[in-house]
Amino acid sequence: MANGPLLRFLSKAQPIVISLSIAILVYFRSIDLLFLFIGSTICAYVAKGLKRIIRQPRPLRTNDSSISKKDTFGMPSSHSQVMSFFAYYTFRTVYRDTLFAIFLYLFTFLVLWSRVKMGHHTLAQVLVGTFIGAIMAHVWYNLWLSKVEFLQPFLLNI
User: Fold this and answer.
1) pLDDT for residue 133
2) Which positions, given as ranges, span the membrane (predicted)?
3) Residues in CB range of 83: below 8 A, 6 or more apart
4) Is 30 helix (H, G, I), strand (E, B) or coil?
């Protein structure tokens, strides 16, 4: 079964988000953004570590003809975890109540939906990844507020 253009685009979300993040960081040269990207990188490594511990296989069926067999485990979904981290953290920091927040949550939802639709993950794997990513973003944001933000006037921009 062939995937439509939307699913093919969403399957490339990770390099798109990484590229845009680097461009935004270079353009704004902000310690706030650097802290966000460090947190999202940690979140991705936590997802990879959890996959090795939990060792739950991916679904047997996939709708993506370009994928013959995934050699990695599926629980939790790394894409879901990092996308929910990024969306939650970004919403909490600067983009509350704006069109950007709506776009960010819609894009995140579409990526999460695509992971199940394309057969890369089960719904449970996506939901667990989403939950862990949001919890990590909440903790990371509170760390920023309590420990790091007060140092910002003393730190030079990148």
Assistant:
1) 94
2) 20-47, 98-116, 122-141
3) 13, 17, 108, 111, 112, 130, 133
4) coil
Find the angle CA(121)-CA(81)-CA(112) to the nearest 5 degrees.
50
84 vs 33: which has the higher pLDDT: 84
Mean pLDDT, range 93-118, rounded to an integer: 80
Residue, of 156 and 11, whose pLDDT is higher:
11
Contact of 141 with 96, CB cutoff 8 Å: no
Report DSSP letters for 41-108, one per residue.
Answer: HHHHHHHHHHHHHH-PPPPS--S-TT-S---S--SS-HHHHHHHHHHHHHHHHT-TTSHHHHHHHHHH
Residues 6+ apart with CB under 8 A from 20: none
CA 141 – CA 9 distance, rounded (Å): 30
